[in-house]
Amino acid sequence: MEKSTAYDVAHLAGVSQSTVSLVMRNSPNVSFKQDTVTRVLNAAEILGYTRPAHKEKRVGSLAKAIAILVPTMTDPYYREVVSQIERQAYQLGYGSVICNTLGAVERERDFLESLDEDSVIGFLYTFDSNLSESTRRFTRKTPIAFVGSVRRKNGQYSDGDNNIKAGFLLADHLFLLGHKNLVYITASDTVDSTTAMQRLSGMRMAVKQYPASTGIRIQTVESGLRAWNERSNLRDYAAGQNIVRKFIKGPHDITAAITDNEMIAFGMMQGIQEKGMKIPRDISLCSIENSFLSNLCTPNLTTVDFCLPERCRAAIELLVSNDRSESDRFEKMELEPKLIARGSTGIPWDQTLK
């Protein structure tokens, strides 16, 4: 009788292989619904499956590499993603090759074409990609994984579920504190971008929990930032400063703001201080990413954590798994975002006077 694999457990439990891996490893800081955990453990027991231990890497044993594709290396979030992937891949005995696409399909294609497919174990995307036809042809025989992404029925790839949840968590946190006038600052030059719309959808879901009589409303402000190849940390930071100068007239104009990335939030912090205002007394501020910088600024930034180490580990294990079938080359990472409430959010100024 053949030995059961993680794929067999996933099929019986009705979950993805990444979920099986994380549940069997009892990964810290990762929460699944109890029903999911029970189904995985029961399936593993029925099939007699035990998770194989990875062999320790030996010096000079890096036979193959993981090709990592990122849209930028100036954003602290993506630098942290790459660092996590490189560290964990090395522990499993794999090297890494990095492509900074700058959001350009041509750069992505040129990078893929320059690689010897025999030298890479797979391609790991750190961002949403619809995969052009040329990319699909080139990678037909090579496994692909997406950090935290979902394959939709139309063949597109998105981290939509988690973006919606992130927007919901931050908006609900602010509403529970008593805020009613919230502004959402998008990182793109348009609020119609996929990510911005997903997060805004989550925020609107949070609004629907409260009676219309509460007067809760959400404004959207476009940062004006353009494509990845035209952006840098300094431009994101400056965009945050300019937003404060342009849209926040003074104390009590708005009571809370959510930004799409932390560099915009840090720029807003500077702009708010320049106006003689204080966070969170005059305005609460929060963002999405939870990079190490969010815990170094003053006050510490309230944000959403996407369980980055576990997401990276799960994606890597999908690539190196020997029991993967064609049907599950693209996987959903079932890791719930978590709210990290810190000092940058508090009750609105008008309630402190009561």
Count every beta strand, where a strand is a DSSP E run of 2 or more residues: 12
Report the radius of gyration as a whole number of Å. Answer: 22 Å
Strand content: 5-15%
Tell me the overall shape: globular
Q: How many individual helices?
A: 12
Which CATH C-level class of the largest domain is it? Alpha Beta
Summing up helix and strand content along with how strands pair, one would put the structural category as: alpha/beta
Largest sheet: 4 strands, parallel
Unreliable parts: 55-60, 151-158, 322-332
Measured distance between first and last alpha carbons? 72 Å
**So, CATH architecture of the largest domain?**
3-Layer(aba) Sandwich
**CATH topology descriptor of the largest domain:** Rossmann fold
Number of domains: 3
Within CATH, the superfamily of the largest domain carries the name Response regulator
